[in-house]
Amino acid sequence: MRLGIQTLLRLVAGTYFVLTSLYCLLAFLPYTYCAFIKAPPYSWMPWFTHHQAALYWAAAAALSIANWPPAEHGQRRSPSFLAGCVLLAAAGFYLTFRPFLPGLRDDRAAYWWGLVSLVPLIGFALFRPTSPSWYQRRAEQHQSASGQGFGYALGVLTALCVSSVYTFGVYARLVSDSHSLHLNSQAAELALWSLLSHSALAIAVLSILNLIFQVAARTSMPRPIRRMLIGGSIAIALGFVLVRFLDDSMSFDGWSARFYAGALAITLTLWGFSLILPWLDRERPHSSFHRVSAIGRIATWIATVVLIGLALASRSLIGGEDWNGFVGSTWALIFWVAMSLCVYRLRPVRTNYSGTVILATLLVAAFVYKGLQFTEIFWAKPLGSTDDEISLKLEEYGERDASFLLAHHVLGNSRHQPCGDLCRILREYTNIRDTHIHQGVRLVEQLTATKSARPNIFIFVIDSMRPDYLGAYNPEHVNYTPNLDALARDSIVFDNVYTQYVGTSISEPAVWSGAELLHTHFPQPFDDVNSLRTLARTDEYQLVLSYDTVLRQLFTPSDDVTKLDSDKQLWNQYEACSTVQQLESTLDGRSDQSRPVLFYAQPMNVHQFARNDVPSPSSQHWQSPTGMNSRITYEVHWVDSCLGGFFSYLKRRGLYDESIIVVASDHGDATGEFGRISHSTSIWPEIARVPLIVHLPGNLRERLVHEDDRLATLTDIAPTLYYLLGHRPIQQNPLYGRPLLAETKAELDRYPDRDLLLASDVRAVYGILTADGRYLYTTYDSPAQSYLFDLAADPNAQHNILTSALKQRYDEEIIERLHTIGDYYGYKPGVGTLLASSGH
């Protein structure tokens, strides 16, 4: 009982200190500071910061009680333990009067606080009881430790179980989504390669453990040496994984990243050992896994069944809330360990391999695995005709099978490379901490109050909504968006529209700016680049905004803004129907009905992290079209109903035909149909392409021309509105958007077609979309990889046609564009610039 309580207290205390450290790391990195700290997606995060002192005292008390050493024969408490308690108390008094979490900023202080938060856990994890009887018992155990290791059959059996469960889960979900199962040679090869990968990894891990057992058995203190070697191996492996994760997911590298990853890895390892070792150190002279009672076997079988059920349901339980696959990979790792323990409990076979046998087994397994990998061009024809296509297909399958993807990457297939020259240049212009700009955006030379009519302007940017989920763009498969389809029939539907930023945190500011921006969160003073705000001031529009967490950082408290959705505390709570209801009430309650309104909203219904009160699809018996994501189709249908109600409201008040209505999306989303998920961290056609529907008053539409299929971007919205209100001509600048409508085609043609620079808002990932919209080039900083797709022949971007010459050409174009943006806003990367990507 006592040991169970101590373990629970250590678990609670450790969770607090690790969460505090991770929170500080999120604050230090510019993107996560914007997306998690200033605009938290979960309600527990602001609660956690506001109660830092109270939570610290609780964690400190739990840590002290859990490590309270038993006094035997009147012995005094350990001086080191007492000193640790005093230091914990002193830190508690400091935090009571000066808690640091509420005031964190994206600077070095956040980084150092993240490291300091790990110190208590490291100190107490190193503390162990030191009573004489404990030493005597430990000495006896050390002397009796043997060099027996684990049989390889155990590892292969576990690998078979794990790979089979995850493979079954993949195809079960495919059947559930498409209501059909297509088993072919490709599916068989993927399943076999998954089994081979899991088996190779299991043999490698068991070989390392068996070698450690052999080495430790030859020392005078075999058990502590064994644990030290195992702990060191775990810490090194964990640190390596954390370094890779920070580099690949956050473009955060250098000594700062490596030092933090190492500190966190050591902390997690020591914390884990502090939870497990007391149970292993209990005095059980005759107990062994070799003797498992009938009740124990039944309990183990039950645990195995529960684990398999959780693994099969993991994708559904995680849902869309898995950033960059981190949650899925973590659960897969936990499942590996838990299944290994269960299999060992049911088949407790130990063996005593010689060092020669262990090394030979490891070499044979490596030879077979790598040999098959090097010859995959011959045996893996169903997966692709080139090594690159096969690699893409394996990655695509891995997006659906988190266990395989983890094993695939651990075996050295993540194509990770050190950040080279191109990577460094890209990172210098990414997540810039120095947000001050020296020049603003002026879409027209001289902006004066318009003499034209001032129609109401309603802008709806539906976060993450793809065009192929709307009937206006995909009439053959979509029949659940009748209201937006009706709007499209009354409007102009632009067919070839892309966002230049595949994540909200920069895409939304770019809409307001009407220009490409520095990759920063956010340029200051933002008023200098806020073209729509300038338009509203000049033409005396009443700004009515769904005051989301991004707009709160783009506007100042003194701005004359009617703020809707002020009750929403989290960025993923903004919901279309709630916003529309507040908008209608605001429009009805205005004292000056003659003043036009410029309204903007960015509902989060469709976003993968959406959290709202909308009824679930299952409760509404929602049936999604075959091959489409059920959650997304349902949410898009819900948004369609909300906007349909607002369009009816405008018609009842005679405003519909006299208003400009813009419906768009800030970016799309990858939903797994091509083995790609999420957005922000990668650039693919389904993420970069967005809808754009523009409804115009009749008198404007009659005298304006446009080209439906001309390449357009979200930064064209602001210049188009300027043009519609008579602010002309729009200046030609390589960073500015352009009007999508004009009075003559010749005027449209004065704005030449140009290649588009695309960017992630999280990390140093960039792309070029050629002016004709045919070729898409993307390059990633880490893992260093580049792709070129011919979207005319390969619209889903599944066949890489990149050559060395084309890579050099597009890389040079990206660098030139980044230099142009930096020069315009007065940014010059230098030695003193603190970047998210630099640890120097």
Written account of the structure:
With 840 residues, the protein is an alpha/beta fold. The chain has 30 helices and 17 strands. The strands form 5 sheets. It has a 7-stranded mixed β-sheet with strand order 4-12-9-3-8-6-7, with helices on both faces. The chain has a 4-stranded antiparallel β-sheet with strand order 14-15-16-17, covered by helices on one side. Helix 23 links the parallel strand 6 and strand 7 (561-564). Helix 1 (2-28) packs across helix 2 (30-37), helix 11 packs antiparallel against helix 12 (254-280) and helix 17 (387-400) crosses helix 18 (402-413). The longest helix is centred in the N-terminal third of the chain and has 33 residues, at 185-217. The radius of gyration is 30 Å and the shape is globular. The two termini are 49 Å apart.
* Helix share bin: 40-55%
Query: What Rg do the Cα atoms give?
Result: 30 Å
Largest sheet: 7 strands, mixed
Number of strands: 17
Q: Low-confidence segments, ≥5 residues, pLDDT <50? A: 130-135, 283-289, 831-840
Shape: globular
Give a quick precis of the structure.
The protein has 840 residues and is α/β, with parallel strands linked by helices. Helix content is 52%, strand content 8%.
List the helices and strands and how they pair.
Layout: H1 2-28, H2 30-37, H3 44-50, H4 52-66, H5 79-97, H6 108-116, H7 119-126, H8 132-144, E1 149-150, H9 152-178, H10 185-217, H11 222-250, H12 254-280, H13 294-318, H14 326-346, E2 350-351, H15 355-374, H16 376-379, H17 387-400, H18 402-413, H19 421-428, E3 457-461, H20 482-489, E4 492-494, E5 497-498, H21 504-513, H22 531-538, E6 542-546, H23 551-554, E7 561-564, H24 576-588, E8 597-601, H25 630-652, E9 660-664, E10 670-671, E11 677-678, H26 685-688, E12 692-695, H27 698-702, E13 712-713, H28 717-724, H29 745-749, E14 756-759, E15 765-769, E16 775-780, E17 785-790, H30 804-825
Parallel strand pairs: 3-8, 3-9, 5-13, 6-7, 6-8
Antiparallel strand pairs: 1-2, 4-12, 9-12, 10-11, 14-15, 15-16, 16-17
Helix pairs in contact: 1-2, 1-4, 1-6, 1-12, 4-5, 7-12, 9-10, 9-13, 9-14, 10-11, 10-15, 10-18, 11-12, 13-14, 14-18, 17-18, 20-25, 24-25
